[in-house]
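Technical annex, item 7. During the second reporting period the consortium partners agreed on a shared format for inverse folding records so that results from different sites could be compared directly. Each record opens with the tokenized structure and is followed by the designed sequence. A conforming record, contributed by the partner at site C, is shown below for reference.
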């Protein structure tokens, strides 16, 4: 009877630790927004997700969700993982953070034929049309103060396609985006052929893997943390950063 009990307990903890499926938020741009096979999911965050999860017994799948909705889903435990998430005191109430995953640099993307010179955050207030920001995104404390004091100079969007459409129709002067994403999209996505990337840095900070506290158990968290600290993962991390020109 004792051996049977030990076996049942052992099997239970094995399933808790390794028998899992991780649901990962992702959002594609432009032509990439068309539904495709899982093998076609690609990009910076896809590579980072695979680097962390490849050596676990967890299966994983990507789901397309706008950023703000995904944050709500992560908080509720409806999805398990988001990537490239800034750490804030409020978010730490609901998410486990592993990282830093990488350094994020936010810049202004504009239409190449209608680009402006930006030398300070205050220059955003003098542009002829609003600047688009992603709902639920965090661009640093200094920018947040500017946004709260001058809301009429900004427009909130829920997805990437909307930003591109607004820019194409000259409804906005530009939109804020991670520089690495812009470089990658300009290289591989025809929808970005007209995009100009301004050199001025809006915000630069560490970003992390963010796991839901509602759906992830402690054993899984410890497993992912061990993998993140491993030399094998660090090698993968450097290769990914080099691939996207972020080293």
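Designed sequence (site C submission):
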């Amino acid at each position: 009877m004792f051996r049977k009990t030990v076996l049942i307990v052992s099997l239970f903890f094995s399933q808790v630790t390794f028998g899992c499926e991780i649901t990962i938020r992702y959002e594609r741009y432009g032509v990439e927004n068309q539904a495709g096979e899982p093998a076609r999911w690609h990009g910076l965050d896809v590579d980072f997700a695979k680097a962390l999860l490849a050596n676990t017994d967890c299966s994983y799948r990507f789901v397309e969700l706008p950023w703000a909705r995904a944050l709500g889903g992560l908080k509720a435990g409806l999805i398990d993982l988001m990537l490239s998430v800034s750490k804030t005191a409020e978010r730490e109430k609901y998410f486990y953070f592993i990282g830093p995953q990488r350094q994020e640099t936010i810049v202004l993307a504009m239409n190449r034929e209608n680009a402006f010179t930006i030398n300070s955050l205050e220059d955003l207030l003098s542009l002829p049309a609003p600047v688009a920001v992603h709902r639920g995104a965090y661009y640093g404390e200094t920018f947040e103060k500017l946004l709260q004091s001058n809301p009429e100079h900004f427009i909130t969007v829920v997805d990437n396609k909307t930003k591109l459409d607004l820019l194409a129709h000259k409804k906005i002067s530009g939109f804020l985006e991670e520089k690495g994403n812009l470089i990658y999209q300009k290289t591989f996505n025809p929808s970005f052929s007209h995009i100009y990337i301004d050199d001025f840095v809006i915000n630069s900070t560490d970003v992390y893997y963010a796991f839901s506290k509602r759906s992830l158990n402690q054993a899984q968290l410890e497993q992912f943390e061990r993998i993140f600290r491993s030399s094998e993962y660090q090698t993968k991390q450097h290769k990914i950063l080099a691939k996207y020109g972020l080293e």
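The chain has two domains: 2-103+207-243, 104-204. Residues 130 and 154 are 5 Å apart (CA to CA). All partners now use this format for quarterly exchanges.
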